[in-house]
Design a protein that fits this description.
- By secondary structure, the protein is of the alpha/beta class.
- The protein has a single domain, classed as Metalloproteases ("zincins"), catalytic domain (Collagenase (Catalytic Domain)), CATH 3.40.390.
- Helices cover 52% and strands 13% of the residues.
Protein backbone atom coordinates (compact mmCIF):
# COMPACT_ATOMS: atom_id res chain seq x y z
CA UNK A 1 0.00 0.00 0.00
CA UNK A 2 1.35 3.37 -0.95
CA UNK A 3 0.24 6.48 0.92
CA UNK A 4 1.68 9.84 0.02
CA UNK A 5 1.42 12.65 2.56
CA UNK A 6 1.85 16.37 1.96
CA UNK A 7 1.50 18.97 4.68
CA UNK A 8 0.74 22.37 3.16
CA UNK A 9 -1.19 23.59 6.20
CA UNK A 10 1.53 25.17 8.31
CA UNK A 11 0.26 23.11 11.27
CA UNK A 12 2.30 20.34 12.87
CA UNK A 13 0.31 17.12 12.39
CA UNK A 14 0.93 13.58 13.67
CA UNK A 15 1.58 12.06 10.25
CA UNK A 16 2.42 8.60 11.66
CA UNK A 17 -1.01 8.47 13.30
CA UNK A 18 -2.78 9.51 10.09
CA UNK A 19 -0.80 6.95 8.07
CA UNK A 20 -1.59 4.22 10.57
CA UNK A 21 -5.31 5.03 10.63
CA UNK A 22 -5.48 5.16 6.82
CA UNK A 23 -3.60 1.87 6.39
CA UNK A 24 -5.79 0.16 8.96
CA UNK A 25 -9.04 1.42 7.40
CA UNK A 26 -7.94 0.42 3.90
CA UNK A 27 -6.92 -3.05 5.07
CA UNK A 28 -10.11 -3.44 7.13
CA UNK A 29 -12.16 -2.61 4.03
CA UNK A 30 -10.28 -5.34 2.15
CA UNK A 31 -8.83 -2.97 -0.43
CA UNK A 32 -6.02 -4.39 -2.55
CA UNK A 33 -2.72 -3.96 -0.65
CA UNK A 34 -1.18 -2.27 -3.70
CA UNK A 35 -3.71 0.56 -3.59
CA UNK A 36 -2.47 4.14 -3.65
CA UNK A 37 -3.75 7.05 -1.59
CA UNK A 38 -2.78 10.67 -1.16
CA UNK A 39 -3.42 12.64 2.03
CA UNK A 40 -2.98 16.40 1.87
CA UNK A 41 -3.17 18.81 4.79
CA UNK A 42 -4.23 22.33 3.82
CA UNK A 43 -4.93 25.65 5.51
CA UNK A 44 -8.36 27.17 6.11
CA UNK A 45 -8.32 29.37 3.00
CA UNK A 46 -7.38 26.51 0.68
CA UNK A 47 -10.05 24.28 2.20
CA UNK A 48 -12.65 27.05 1.86
CA UNK A 49 -11.72 27.40 -1.83
CA UNK A 50 -12.01 23.63 -2.40
CA UNK A 51 -15.29 23.50 -0.50
CA UNK A 52 -16.78 26.23 -2.66
CA UNK A 53 -15.37 24.87 -5.93
CA UNK A 54 -16.44 21.23 -5.45
CA UNK A 55 -19.40 21.40 -3.06
CA UNK A 56 -20.68 24.92 -3.73
CA UNK A 57 -20.63 25.52 0.03
CA UNK A 58 -19.04 28.57 1.66
CA UNK A 59 -16.30 28.36 4.26
CA UNK A 60 -13.83 25.64 5.15
CA UNK A 61 -14.69 22.11 6.23
CA UNK A 62 -12.81 19.37 8.03
CA UNK A 63 -12.25 16.76 5.30
CA UNK A 64 -12.93 16.31 1.60
CA UNK A 65 -12.36 13.20 -0.50
CA UNK A 66 -11.64 13.05 -4.20
CA UNK A 67 -11.94 9.48 -5.56
CA UNK A 68 -9.83 8.57 -8.58
CA UNK A 69 -10.63 5.06 -9.81
CA UNK A 70 -14.15 3.69 -9.98
CA UNK A 71 -14.32 0.84 -7.47
CA UNK A 72 -17.17 -1.51 -8.25
CA UNK A 73 -16.82 -4.77 -6.32
CA UNK A 74 -18.51 -7.70 -8.01
CA UNK A 75 -18.98 -5.83 -11.28
CA UNK A 76 -17.79 -7.13 -14.58
CA UNK A 77 -17.69 -10.53 -16.20
CA UNK A 78 -17.48 -13.70 -14.10
CA UNK A 79 -14.38 -14.79 -16.03
CA UNK A 80 -12.62 -11.43 -15.57
CA UNK A 81 -9.32 -11.33 -13.71
CA UNK A 82 -9.31 -10.31 -10.07
CA UNK A 83 -9.09 -6.53 -9.68
CA UNK A 84 -5.61 -5.25 -8.99
CA UNK A 85 -4.33 -2.22 -7.17
CA UNK A 86 -6.16 1.03 -7.65
CA UNK A 87 -5.54 4.69 -7.06
CA UNK A 88 -8.13 5.44 -4.41
CA UNK A 89 -7.75 9.19 -4.65
CA UNK A 90 -7.03 12.14 -2.39
CA UNK A 91 -8.11 12.93 1.14
CA UNK A 92 -7.78 16.62 1.96
CA UNK A 93 -7.72 17.48 5.67
CA UNK A 94 -7.75 20.88 7.31
CA UNK A 95 -5.87 20.63 10.63
CA UNK A 96 -6.93 24.10 11.85
CA UNK A 97 -10.59 23.18 11.36
CA UNK A 98 -9.97 19.79 12.96
CA UNK A 99 -8.32 21.40 16.01
CA UNK A 100 -11.35 23.62 16.61
CA UNK A 101 -13.71 20.69 16.05
CA UNK A 102 -11.75 18.50 18.50
CA UNK A 103 -11.85 21.22 21.14
CA UNK A 104 -15.60 21.63 20.68
CA UNK A 105 -16.16 17.88 20.92
CA UNK A 106 -13.82 17.68 23.93
CA UNK A 107 -11.50 15.08 22.53
CA UNK A 108 -7.92 15.14 21.30
CA UNK A 109 -6.65 16.53 18.03
CA UNK A 110 -5.14 13.10 17.31
CA UNK A 111 -8.52 11.43 17.72
CA UNK A 112 -10.16 14.00 15.46
CA UNK A 113 -7.57 13.38 12.75
CA UNK A 114 -8.06 9.61 13.04
CA UNK A 115 -11.85 10.03 12.70
CA UNK A 116 -11.47 12.32 9.69
CA UNK A 117 -8.95 10.00 8.05
CA UNK A 118 -11.23 6.97 8.34
CA UNK A 119 -14.15 9.11 7.21
CA UNK A 120 -12.17 10.22 4.15
CA UNK A 121 -11.20 6.64 3.28
CA UNK A 122 -14.84 5.54 3.46
CA UNK A 123 -15.86 8.37 1.13
CA UNK A 124 -13.18 7.24 -1.34
CA UNK A 125 -14.72 3.76 -1.21
CA UNK A 126 -18.15 5.09 -2.13
CA UNK A 127 -19.78 5.55 1.26
CA UNK A 128 -21.81 8.68 1.87
CA UNK A 129 -24.15 10.21 4.44
CA UNK A 130 -26.60 12.11 2.25
CA UNK A 131 -29.65 10.48 3.84
CA UNK A 132 -30.38 8.93 7.24
CA UNK A 133 -29.88 5.31 6.15
CA UNK A 134 -26.53 6.06 4.46
CA UNK A 135 -25.46 8.06 7.50
CA UNK A 136 -26.24 5.18 9.88
CA UNK A 137 -24.31 2.75 7.68
CA UNK A 138 -21.28 4.99 7.15
CA UNK A 139 -20.94 6.25 10.71
CA UNK A 140 -21.56 2.76 12.12
CA UNK A 141 -18.77 1.40 9.93
CA UNK A 142 -16.54 4.38 10.76
CA UNK A 143 -17.00 3.82 14.50
CA UNK A 144 -16.38 0.07 14.17
CA UNK A 145 -13.15 0.65 12.23
CA UNK A 146 -11.96 3.24 14.75
CA UNK A 147 -12.72 0.91 17.66
CA UNK A 148 -10.83 -1.94 16.01
CA UNK A 149 -7.95 0.40 15.16
CA UNK A 150 -7.65 1.59 18.78
CA UNK A 151 -7.71 -2.05 19.97
CA UNK A 152 -5.01 -2.94 17.42
CA UNK A 153 -2.84 0.00 18.52
CA UNK A 154 -3.18 -0.99 22.20
CA UNK A 155 -2.21 -4.58 21.34
CA UNK A 156 0.82 -3.41 19.32
CA UNK A 157 1.87 -1.08 22.16
CA UNK A 158 1.55 -3.93 24.70
CA UNK A 159 3.56 -6.28 22.49
CA UNK A 160 6.30 -3.67 21.97
CA UNK A 161 6.41 -2.95 25.71
CA UNK A 162 6.64 -6.66 26.53
CA UNK A 163 9.34 -7.17 23.91
CA UNK A 164 11.35 -4.31 25.41
CA UNK A 165 10.98 -5.79 28.91
CA UNK A 166 12.06 -9.20 27.61
CA UNK A 167 15.13 -7.71 25.90
CA UNK A 168 16.06 -5.79 29.05
CA UNK A 169 15.71 -8.94 31.17
CA UNK A 170 17.78 -11.04 28.76
CA UNK A 171 20.46 -8.35 28.68
CA UNK A 172 20.43 -8.16 32.48
CA UNK A 173 20.98 -11.90 32.89
CA UNK A 174 23.69 -12.02 30.25
CA UNK A 175 21.92 -13.04 27.07
CA UNK A 176 22.43 -9.75 25.27
CA UNK A 177 23.27 -11.40 21.95
CA UNK A 178 20.35 -13.83 21.84
CA UNK A 179 18.91 -14.01 18.31
CA UNK A 180 15.27 -13.08 18.05
CA UNK A 181 12.89 -15.03 15.80
Amino acid sequence: MSIELANESGVDVPTDLVLDAAKFAIARMDVHPGAELSVIFVDLDTMADLHMKWMDLPGPTDVMSFPMDELTPGAGRPDAAEPGPATLGDIVLCPEFAQAQAKEARHSFDHELAVLTVHGVLHLLGYDHADAEEEREMFGLQNAILGEWYDDRRNRDRAAHQSKRDEDLLRKIGFADVDED
